[in-house]
Write a structure and sequence with these properties.
Length: 80
């Protein structure tokens, strides 16, 4: 059950980040990948700043922030 919740969290975070950065999502698989990588990046950023998130909503916020940062970094690399 934890794995399914992890995939749902990744899909939601990726979809939200896609809507924030580009105005649309990336499809189910793309949203999951962006959300999962974003959750790792967000966890690193939050711990570096001394912030902690608890529960599903906290995890969703952390993953979404990380996914937005990831998409921003990707857009910077694409421009070069």
């Amino acid at each position: 059950m934890n794995f399914i919740a992890f995939l749902i969290l990744g899909a939601l975070a990726g979809w939200i980040a896609g809507n924030i950065m580009k105005g649309r999502g990336f499809g189910l698989l793309g949203n999951i990948v962006v959300g999962i990588v974003g959750s790792m990046l967000g966890g690193f950023l939050f711990s570096a700043l001394g912030l902690k998130a608890f529960g599903f909503v906290g995890s969703l916020i952390t993953a979404t922030v990380g996914a937005v940062v990831l998409l921003y970094l990707i857009s910077l690399v694409k421009r070069s």
